[in-house]
Amino acid sequence: MTPLATTDILISEVGPRDGLQSVKATMATADKCLWIDSLVASGLREIEVASFVPAHLLPQMADAADVVRHALKHTGMTVMALVPNLRGAEAALRAGAQKLTMPVSASAAHSMANVRKTPEAMVEEVRAVIALRDAIAPGVRVEAGVSTAFGCTLQGPVPEDDVVRLAELLAKAGADEIGLSDTTGMGNPAQTSRLFKRLFSTIGHRTGAAHMHNTRGLGLANCLAAYEAGVRTFDSSLGGLGGCPFAPGASGNVVTEDLVFMFEAMGVRTGIDLNRLMAARAPLQAGLPGEPLYGMTPEAGLPKGWTAPALVSHG
Fold this sequence. Notes:
By secondary structure, the protein is of the alpha/beta class. It has one domain (10-300): Aldolase class I (TIM Barrel, Alpha-Beta Barrel). The protein is built from 13 helices and eight strands. An eight-stranded parallel beta barrel has the order 1-2-3-4-5-6-7-8, surrounded by eight helices. Strand 2, helix 3 (64-71) and strand 3 form a beta-alpha-beta unit. Helix 4 runs parallel beside helix 6, helix 7 (160-173) runs parallel beside helix 8 (189-203) and helix 8 (189-203) packs parallel to helix 9. It is globular and about 50 Å long. The two termini are 14 Å apart.
C-alpha cells in the first residue's frame, strides 16, 4: 500500500469526498477525475474519492462508482470511499473501493441528524459491514471515524469517556482502524493529545487518523498535538474545501498544502511534492469556478531554497 518506504506519515486527502459534498455546486465527473489525477501526481497515497449515499440526499456524490473506477487506474494509491451503512458499503465494494471509512458519531444528537441511527446502532452497522467485507472483499480495510469526538454544535460538550468507550466498541466490532474527527472544529491541542493518548492506551495499533478542522484556527496545532501523541495518519482537504453539512457552523477542513508544508519543514517526510500539490488547485478551481479556496502556503509561496521530496511514480 505504501510505495515510499522513506515516508514518516500518511496524508489522506479527503477533498473529493468531504470537500465536494459540502459545497452547493456539483462538480462534473470529468472534472473530478482530472482533479484526482492531479492529486495523485503530487504523491498522495490515499484519497477519499467519493461517498456512497443516496443521490437525492447528496447529488454531488451521484457518480461515486464512476469516480472510484477511474481512481483505480492509478497504482500505488489507496482508493477510499465513505459509506454510512451496509447498503452503501456493498455498492462501494462492488465498485472496487480499496478502503471504506464509516462515520460513527460520539454525539447522539449528531448521529441522528447525520445517519438517523444512535451511536450504538452504528456500531452494529460497522459489525455488519465487516462481515460483508470478509465475505466478498477480504483485502479491503474498514476504518471507523469517531465524529464529533471533540464537541458537538448540536449536543455541546462530548464526554471523553464516551469517545473512548465508543472506540473500544468499534475495535471489538472488528474495525481495522478507529480515528477521531473534530467534526465541528471545537478541539484544542491539549484535548487532542489527551484523547489520542487514551485511544492508544485502550485500542493500541488500531488507533487511526486525526481528522481535524480549522474552524477556530487550531487545525494545524491539533494535528501537531496528534502527531506528538503518536498519530501517523492525517486527513486533510486541498484548499481547505469542505466541512459537515449535518453540523451547523462546522467548516474548514485542514488545508492539505499547509499540513504538508508544516510536516516537511519539520523534517517529517510525507512523500508529497508541494509544488505539484499546489498545482492541483487549478483543476479544482476549473471544476468549481468561484468556490473559495484557502491556504496560507499557496498564498505565500514556498521559502527560498525549498527542496521538494523525491517522488515515486503513481501510474
